[in-house]
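Before the break, one more example. Copy the sequence into your notebook; we will annotate it together after we see the structure.
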Amino acid sequence: MKKIVLTGGPGTGKSTLILALEQRGEYVIRESAEDVIRLMQAQGHPEPWTMPGFQELILKLQLQRESRIPDEAARVFMDRGVPDGLAYALPGTRTYELLLQEAKKAKYDLVFLVENLGCTNKTAVRAENHEEAVKLGSKLEEVYRMLGYEPIRIPAVPLNERLEKILSEMD
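Here is what the structure looks like once it is written out:
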C-alpha cells in the first residue's frame, strides 16, 4: 500500500484535491485538524487552537485514521500527515517532542506540497491570514525535508491540472 500525503499551508486547496481524488475512487483520509476544530467549536470552544492539548487531539485522530486504512487499499491519499503538526507546535515543548517522535515513526511513500493559490481567507476553522498561510507552507516543506522527504510541488494551477500532476507521479 502506498501512503501519499498532500501538505501545504492553509487554504491551498488540499481538501478540494482530496475530494476530487475520492470522486475518482481513491481511498482518502480527510484532514484531522479541521474535524477536531469543528467538534470543539460545536462543544462551545470558538477558538480551540488556543487551548492546551489541541495539537495532541489532532495527532490522536490522525493516528487513529491512519491505523484504520483497510488492507485492501492499494494507496491512500491523506489531507496532511503526522509531521504537519510540527509546523504548528513550538519547538522545545512537550507537544513538539511528542509530535516529532510520532512523525519519525510515520512512513509515507510520497509527499506533495500544494502551493498557495495567491489568497487565503480566514474562516471559522482557518485562523491564518494569507501571510501566515504562506509562512506555514514554507515551514511544512522544511519539516518534511528535515524528516528525509522530498516534497513534490503542486503548482497553483486549475484543479484538473493539479490532479493530473498528482496522478502522473503515481506511474
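Helices lie at 14-23, 32-42, 54-67, 94-105, 130-146, 159-168. The chain is about 45% helix and 15% strand. Try to locate both features in your own notes.
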